[in-house]
Amino acid sequence: MGSDLRLVLPLLRTLNLSPGLRLNYQVLCSSLAISVLELQETASQVNEIEPLLVQEGEDLVLTHKLDLLDPKEIQAQVNARGRFALKNVTTSTNAELMDELGQEEGLLSGDTLVAEIQTQGRSLRGTKWLTSIGTNIMLSLAFRFPSLQHLLGFSLAIGVATVTALEQLGVKDLKLKWPNDVEGRGKKLAGILIETVPVPGSSEVFAIVGVGLNVHHSHTIDRLIDRPYTCLDDMGYNLTRNEVCINLVNEIRYTASHFKRSGLSPFIDTWLRHDALLGRIVEVEISSHRRVMGRVSGVNNLGELILESNSGRTALRSGHIVSVRS
């Protein structure tokens, strides 16, 4: 994929607003102030990400209407806890917010960045979060905490916030899978990645909360992904990316403020009601040399997974679930 994607969204927004989702090549070149060669290269870049454009005679045609984010609509409806920005393209929303810490304006608690295209998004295990166009939500928010110790259990609270934001829109059958996944009908719907950055000259830290959530179906992700996943469309919910984004930002900002005051305790009941692992036998990889197995009995106030086995009770602060059975 070409590294310079700056013309991709301007091209798609222009076609998305045009009658019949099509425009003549020369009209597009004039509108975007680019050459025919640049237009052809940009169209190829689009189709490398998602097959959206076809040529019909002298017209470039968008295969279907795209659900693109509207920054004005989102900005008007998100609460005032921090700044909001929408970028057409970024390598990683998490990484870009981290970079802002060293800049003159710096980060403010609640600052939010959303991207239409993310070229190097990552999951908790370091795998790539696959990108598409107009199908998912990729956002990051920054929150300042007194120390790393104050962040214990924060990822679980963000999971609760994600479920709550979707339930407010009428979505049902959601589950939370420790430590960082939201599931819909047994398949992954959203993932959460929290990274920390120390505040220079202080014991305080910024928690950078990244959330990736599938709203619409993507043929490219279907082709490339190697594990079960779902999206709100496939679950039968006809929601726009704008309304999902607005609810996510507002609920995560509220949750972070509440968590900073009271920790995980106020969120545990909601977590347990949605716990995908509760009562099930799981095997958890702690490191490359150690695995533990037991029946899940819940989580504690530190966000640790509680396992019961013949050898007693174990509390796991981190790990990767490698198997689950009834």
SS field, number of helical segments: 9
Strands of the widest sheet, in order across it, are 4-5-6-10-9-8-7
> What's the CATH C level of the largest domain?
Alpha Beta
Give the uncertain stretches in residue-range form: none
Task: Determine the mean pLDDT.
Answer: 92
The CATH topology of the largest domain is what?
A: BirA Bifunctional Protein, domain 2
Judging from the principal axes of the Cα atoms, what is the shape? globular
Number of domains: 3
Q: How much helix is in the residues?
A: 25-40%
Distance between the termini: 43 Å
E-strand count: 15
Give a quick account of the main beta sheet: strands, pairing sense, barrel closure: 7 strands, mixed
Series of H and E elements: HEHHEEHEHEEHEEEEHHHEEEEE
Structural class: alpha+beta
Under the CATH scheme, the architecture of the largest domain is 2-Layer Sandwich
What is the percentage of strand-forming residues? 25-35%
CATH superfamily of the largest domain: Bira Bifunctional Protein, Domain 2
What's the alpha carbon Rg, rounded to whole Å?
A: 21 Å
